[in-house]
Amino acid sequence: MSFPELFRCPIGLDLFTDPVALSTGQTYDRVNIEKWLAYGNLTCPVTMQRLSDTSLVPNHTLRHLIEQWLLANSAVFTTVPMKSTDVTLSALKHNLQFRESTTVTKLETLRIIKLLSSESSARQASLVREGLFELLLQVLFQFPMAEDAEIVELALDGLLNLSPSSDLESVNMLRDESNLVQLVFLLEEGNSRVKTRLCCLLEAIASCSLARELCLVLGRREKLLQVLVSLLLDKSEFRGLTEAALRAICSLCSLEANRNTAIREGAMDGLVGYLSSAIYASRSRNPNASLALATLEQLLALEVGKRRMSKMENGVMVLVKMVFRVPCDKGCSEHAVGALLLLCNDSAKARTDAINAGVLTQLLLLLQSQSGEQVKSKARALLKLLRAKWATDQGGL
């Protein structure tokens, strides 16, 4: 079964899932054109016209045509009569569950599920009720990636689209040892797209209150945390993967019981490394700096976290540099000052390192800015804490 050329993205050559138009009138799949623009390209990939406007406009007409075409042609996947939406969903399930289904059939079925699952919350709810979320998890953990990585990618796309409409109880199958092993394997050996989607799935799991026990299981999985940290520190990886790995780590650390293991497996090193690259970068290059600092502040509330930070050559310096950035990021400032308060309260060395890194100037700039009272209150507390040390070294303020 071949798709009309009109339905294929000119960049990825795959079926459109979220078609958007540029100012040049050319349509691309959103994920592909966003990646193109993220790499610094300011031209239209097809026409090579320079873009004065990089805004993306959803192409609802094309998306509707693709959906209608797929549903009209879905009968080629199964012998089940296509007489209603419910029957169509049953046919999709049949194609994934039927052992004799070919790889091509599974691929086309997963493409339809991906498209339907991105349509509306009502459609997502109907797919979840039919058990598609759980079935996609089974595909993810039972299908050998070496046979066809695209099947794994499409299963993950469907899972991420459906996760807001699911209670995520189905993901408890991850507590099975073989599935945990497969998860870590996919994070290590998958391509960048698979790794990024898996990190997003981990973030969704860790953010769901009903999946708290599973989050604890994942947080105790040392190898899982090691791989996530390596993805965070690997600058050769796609930028979107770095951000996804960061959010996954921070979500797992949101549970206090996971923090000791996270520190032991290098989470703090990963967070400081991420922030180090954010110091001189634009906010768009490191959009989650505030989240990274908030997680560091949580980890520094533990003695093991403070000990780990004291062993980092540039840990305090990175925090000082994040106290006040232009333009001022209130979230970054508050968490950076909060983290320094925790460090400097117990450590004379941390106080000395902070002063040598220029924290006093940074705090004074922060106090003169338009930051909120809560941030300024923390800044004044840190200044008070450092005053005695500064007075000794400089002969008084």
Write a concise synopsis of the structure shown.
It catalyses: S-ubiquitinyl-[E2 ubiquitin-conjugating enzyme]-L-cysteine + [acceptor protein]-L-lysine = [E2 ubiquitin-conjugating enzyme]-L-cysteine + N(6)-ubiquitinyl-[acceptor protein]-L-lysine. This protein has 397 residues and is mostly helical.
Walk me through the structure:
This protein has 397 residues and is mainly alpha-helical. It has 2 domains: 5-60, Zinc/RING finger domain, C3HC4 (zinc finger) (Herpes Virus-1); 63-326, Leucine-rich Repeat Variant (Alpha Horseshoe). It is built from 21 helices and 3 strands. It has helices at 30-38, 60-73, 85-97, 103-117, 121-129, 132-142, 149-162, 177-189, 192-206, 212-219, 222-233, 239-252, 259-264, 267-278, 289-300, 303-310, 315-321, 330-346, 348-356, 359-367, 373-394, and strands at 19-21, 27-29, 57-58. A 3-stranded antiparallel beta sheet has the order 2-1-3. Helix 7 runs parallel beside helix 9 (192-206) and helix 9 packs parallel to helix 12 (239-252). The longest helix is centred in the last third of the chain and has 22 residues, at 373-394. Residues 75-87 have low confidence and may be disordered. Keywords: Transferase, Ubl conjugation pathway.
